[in-house]
Design a protein that fits this description.
By secondary structure, the chain is α+β, with helices and mostly antiparallel strands.
């Protein structure tokens, strides 16, 4: 009878009883990690826990039946009426169970327990309800905070969907509805497609494409994935065979294998037979095994890999870094390619720092073992650059291509020469052969000019050009200052002349106004005649007269009056003061004169006008001008059209004309003429000066200002000969000074050039000696200019290590192209070049790439910082090959840490490494292994046989444990193993059993029969230091010997027997 059959029988009887108005529910519950209770606190504590939990479950509302069929599994049946909500019951149950377990954990801290309870409503089939409740229990185990889960429609749908997925996958296999897509593998240095990975795809009945994440898990669970792998392998071979027959290009294609293949001893034979059936060379069909497989069954994986490689197939370890196989697989396994997991491309700053430390070492190990390294999941150009910098040159990912149909990929092979175009930043660096200048190249007389000479000559020419430019600029500024110096006084002088003229006219007008008032009171001829006679006798420059209204009318009537007389009379009668135009008067003594008339009125009636006549020459008489500027050449009165009014009589009547017409005949520039026209057209009362040109070697200026009478302009012409002479003297003196300065600079430059050439000749011989010594030296010198960001190497560097050029620019922080520096040493080199080294002088040891191979070798870089004004200016140093020395040192170190007999670590080295692992990880398992009856072997078979036995135990330990684990011999027949990051009792038990199994084959190798007793201590439970763990494991080992030998004891078994 099955454990739950009795429960089903009793529950069925209860359900068919007399229950109305309610629902039955079945419950399945257990305790997660229950075995730890028995392990740490004994069976009595375990029985107590089961009893207490049973009491809680039995106390559920309306619990009709509760049993514990076996171990910690409980089955229950309870009834709820229609008014009670099942979720209220579940909530109350959760509270009680959590409170109970919390109290239990306080009393038993070593146990991490959780109750998982699944509930399902009973409809028709009780067995189905129990299965569904058990499904809900498994879901509850995965929940962190919930102890009880109800089987609902969503869970039923998921179960049904899983079943449907398995069924659909089975039908697809029967109907051959599977195909493969290819994702290319690309060489980053050339863009060449070096292979492809075959990825399975399922085709829907409607022709849609279904990805592996929907069917692969179901096929793994059912075991059908093995058939799928062989099916994909067959399709790949058919495809390759067809292309080979048609003479088309092909690349190797890798097929993924499930971990289930390692359980089939004939798996390699079956896979190879498929390729042979279609006559496909084994080198074109590769296989990929995930790293996780190696953790499950190492020996089976090793056998499968060895058999596939023996047939000629290449094998790739896929997803390296996603599990915990470590680099130990490389010692026992022979494979061809290591595919790095996409986790190594993480953008997390902390992960990036770790990855950049790990990857260079992984790649270095792979290169030494002739294993190709490829990184998958590459999606960005930045990731490609990072991988290239770290030394990984083969990639696979969406950056180049998503998975595509096979024909599409191979069409690219045919059309694109099998290469992807690389961005500029990923283009391979072209090697440039740098010609080293031999001493005496070109011979005497062919030496190129020294750069310093060119610099000195350039400086001299530049200085001359600058001085000439300054001279031209100063000359322009001097001319501008000269014009300002001339024009400002001239404008002031012209304004003064204008005011003098206006004051003269205003004075006469004032006198006439007074006379008009007197004559208006008494206009008798006797009074007027007497007054005018007396006034004219006193005034020598002005002649005053009185004209009656009748006089004006008579002169106008008989025609003796001037043409403008009628207009003048009209203006006077309106009460205006009239200033006449300049007229020639014989009566006044043949002079040009101006008349000013003021009306005279009596009792408001116009009776005549008083008039004053002055010589026009008095209006343009000049005052003394500043002699340092020059002399006044002429003064004119003009109208707005520039017509000159005559003001003086020399040899008859003066001839008048337009001033602008006269200037045009003198050759005045049109720009100046435009300025003159604008000045005459304006009514500006402020004087304005204009330079009209140079005549007879002297500059002439014209200043003009408007008068308020008759639209007259006062024009003053200045000959600025003396100011011009002063200006020329200043310019000539400056030019002479600059010429002397340029001559002095040229002489100084010539002296410096001669001195430098002399020093060149002096150092030439030393330079040739240096170049000859450089050719035969094994030491490379370098000089890094921090300010200009340029590094220079001596010419012999091309013989020592790979270098782009003897002089490279762009080596600053974040820019240094360190592709030829081992990735693990790049940070040290960057710190030195950035000025962040620990001391201003010192040495660092780094690995550089050899000039003719891709191998790295050890070099020592000795450097010295040079400062200027407290700022790092340059770094000088030398690079020496110390590879042989480092290898010797490594061999000596390895010998000093290795046990000479077994090849394992000696006691001191093992203790040191275990202590370091404990400090870093804090978790692990320590094994103490002691050979049983080893003294009997020495006595019975001899010490040679005893040595063979110890070596055999060491070999079995290597086969059992990982490469990264610490294996050592601590003395005599006692050995030790430390496994970090794992402290599982179950794993330790398996490893110990596997070691005992390997030891059983001793007779096949000629070693006497032997067995070992093993003691195990777990960290941190049994100790945190090496001494604590060693003591605990040692006690466990002696307990194992006392228990009959060939036993495995844990330290906790010793504490709690």
């Amino acid at each position: 009878m099955k454990p739950n059959e009795d429960f089903i029988r009793q529950a069925g009887q209860i359900i068919h009883g007399d229950f109305d108005g309610g629902t039955f529910y079945v419950m399945v519950a257990d305790i997660t990690n229950f075995h730890t209770v028995n392990h740490f606190y004994g069976a009595e504590a375990g029985d107590e826990l089961l009893g207490r939990l049973g009491d809680i479950l039995t106390g559920w509302p309306n619990m009709r039946l509760c049993q514990r069929p076996f171990a910690d599994l409980f089955l229950g049946l309870f009834f709820l009426d229609d008014e009670t909500d099942i979720r209220d019951v579940m909530g109350g149950s959760d509270v009680k169970i959590q409170a109970f377990l919390a109290g239990w954990r306080r009393r038993h801290p070593a146990c991490s327990l959780k109750a998982a309870c699944g509930i399902c409503r009973v409809d028709d089939d009780l067995t189905e309800a129990i299965d569904n409740a058990n499904t809900a229990r498994k879901t509850a185990k995965k929940c962190l905070s919930t102890n009880t889960v109800l089987y609902d429609d969503a869970m039923r749908k998921r179960t049904a969907a899983q079943y449907e997925a398995e069924s659909e996958t089975y039908r697809a296999m029967q109907e051959n509805r599977f195909c493969f897509y290819l994702q290319p593998k690309v060489n980053l240095l050339s863009g060449e497609i070096i292979g492809a990975e075959a990825l399975a795809r399922r085709m829907g009945k409607d022709g849609s494409l279904i990805f592996p994440d929907t069917f692969l898990e179901a096929m793994e669970n059912s075991g059908a994935v093995m058939e799928l792998d062989r099916y994909i392998c067959r399709q790949v071979c058919v495809f390759l065979a067809d292309r080979i027959r048609n003479g088309l290009p092909v690349v190797p294609i890798s097929v993924n294998l499930s971990h289930l293949h390692i359980r089939d001893p004939a798996a390699a034979d079956k896979l190879h037979a498929i390729g042979e059936e279609y006559h496909v060379p084994p080198g074109l069909v590769e296989f990929e095994l995930t790293e996780a497989i190696l953790l499950e069954e190492f020996s089976g994986a090793k056998q499968l890999i060895d058999q596939l490689r023996a047939y000629g197939h290449k094998v790739t370890i896929d997803d390296f870094g996603s599990a915990y196989a470590g680099i130990g697989v490389w010692r026992e396994l022979n494979f061809d390619c290591l595919k790095m997991d996409r986790a190594f491309l993480s953008d997390s700053p902390s992960m990036r720092e770790r990855n950049e430390a790990l990857m260079p070492n992984i790649i270095n190990i792979a290169q030494r073992l002739h294993v190709q390294v490829l990184c998958e999941g590459v999606e960005t150009q930045e990731q490609c650059l990072c991988l290239l910098r770290l030394g990984c040159t083969a990639v696979q990912g969406f950056f180049f291509s998503k998975p595509m149909p096979p024909m599409q990929l191979f069409r690219m092979l045919e059309d694109g020469d099998g290469r992807y175009p690389l961005p500029d930043s990923l283009a391979p660096v072209k090697e440039r052969k740098t010609a080293c200048r031999e001493p005496g190249d070109g011979g005497p007389g062919h030496r190129r000019p020294h750069p310093y000479l060119l610099i000195i000559l350039s400086c001299a020419v530049f200085l001359g050009v600058c001085i000439t430019g300054v001279l031209i600029m100063n000359r322009g500024q001097t001319q501008q200052e000269f014009r300002s110096m001339v024009e400002e006084p001239l404008n002031a002088y012209t304004d003064g002349q204008r005011e003098s003229t206006l004051l003269e006219i205003a004075g006469i007008t004032s006198t006439l106004d007074s006379m008009a008032v007197l004559f208006g009171r008494d206009n008798s001829p006797a009074f007027i005649s007497t007054y005018l006679l007396a006034l004219n006798e006193d005034s020598q420059e002005v002649t005053y007269s009185f004209y009656s209204y009748e006089d004006y009318k008579e002169q106008i009537a008989d025609g003796t009056a001037r043409p403008e007389a009628s207009d003048t009379l009209a203006r006077l009668m309106r009460g205006e003061t009239v200033v006449s135009e300049i007229t020639f008067s014989e009566r006044m003594g043949n002079v040009y004169c101006i008349g000013i008339g003021v009306p005279v009125s009596k009792d408001g009636k116009f009776i005549g006008a008083v008039r004053g006549v002055i010589n026009a020459e008095t209006l343009v008489s000049t005052e003394l001008y500043n002699p340092s500027q020059g002399e006044i050449a002429a003064v004119f009165l003009t109208d707005s059209d520039s017509r000159i009014f005559p003001v003086r009589m020399e040899e008859g009547n003066a001839d008048t004309g337009r001033l602008l017409d006269m200037m045009r005949t003198w050759g005045i520039k049109e720009e100046t003429m435009d300025e003159l026209r604008a000045a005459f057209a304006s009514d500006d009362k402020q004087a304005k000066s204009i330079r009209i040109g140079i005549f007879d070697g002297n500059p002439y200026y014209i200043a003009m200002t408007g008068l308020k009478y008759n639209d007259w302009h006062l024009v003053v012409c200045l000959k600025a000969d003396r100011a011009f002479a002063h200006s020329q003297h200043i310019v000539y003196s400056t030019a002479a000074s600059i010429a002397v300065l340029i001559t002095a600079v040229i002489l100084a430059s010539a002296i410096i050039i001669l001195f430098v050439r002399k020093m060149q000749r002096r150092f030439s011989f030393e330079e040739q000696r240096y170049l000859l010594l450089e050719r035969f030296s094994d030491t490379v010198l370098f000089d890094y200019d921090c300010r200009r960001d340029i590094i220079r190497f001596t010419s012999n560097s091309v013989k020592l290590f790979r270098v782009h050029d003897l002089m490279q620019k762009g080596n600053g922080p974040g820019q240094l192209n360190l592709i030829y520096v081992y990735a693990g040493d790049q940070i040290v080199v960057r710190r030195m070049l950035d000025g962040q080294a620990d001391a201003p002088s010192g040495e660092i040891r780094v690995r550089l790439m050899r000039p003719d191979t891709d191998e790295y070798f050890w070099c020592m870089i000795q450097y010295q910082y040079l400062y200027e004004n407290g700022v790092l200016d340059s770094i000088i140093g030398k690079i020496t090959d110390i590879d042989e020395y480092m290898r010797s040192e490594e061999r000596l170190l390895r010998m000093s840490e290795t046990d000479g007999l077994t090849g394992l670590l000696n006691k001191a080295a093992a203790e040191k490494q275990i202590a370091e692992r404990l400090m870093e990880k804090g978790r692990g398992m320590l094994f103490i292994i002691d050979a049983d009856g080893f003294k009997h072997i020495n006595d019975m078979y001899g010490h040679v046989a005893g040595d063979m036995a110890l070596r055999f135990i060491g070999d079995c330990m290597r086969r059992t444990f990982r490469e990264g684990d610490v294996l050592g011999r601590v003395g005599g027949d006692e050995l030790t193993v430390f496994v970090s990051d794992i402290n599982s009792r179950r794993t330790a038990q398996k490893k110990a059993e596997l070691l005992q199994k390997h030891l059983e084959s001793c007779l096949e190798t000629g070693v006497p029969p032997l067995s070992v007793s093993i003691g195990v201590a777990l960290a941190p439970a049994d100790g945190n230091t090496f001494l604590e763990l060693f003591s605990a494991a040692d006690k466990a080992m002696y307990a194992a010997k006392k228990n009959g030998k060939r036993q495995v004891f844990f330290y906790e078994d010793v504490l709690y027997p």
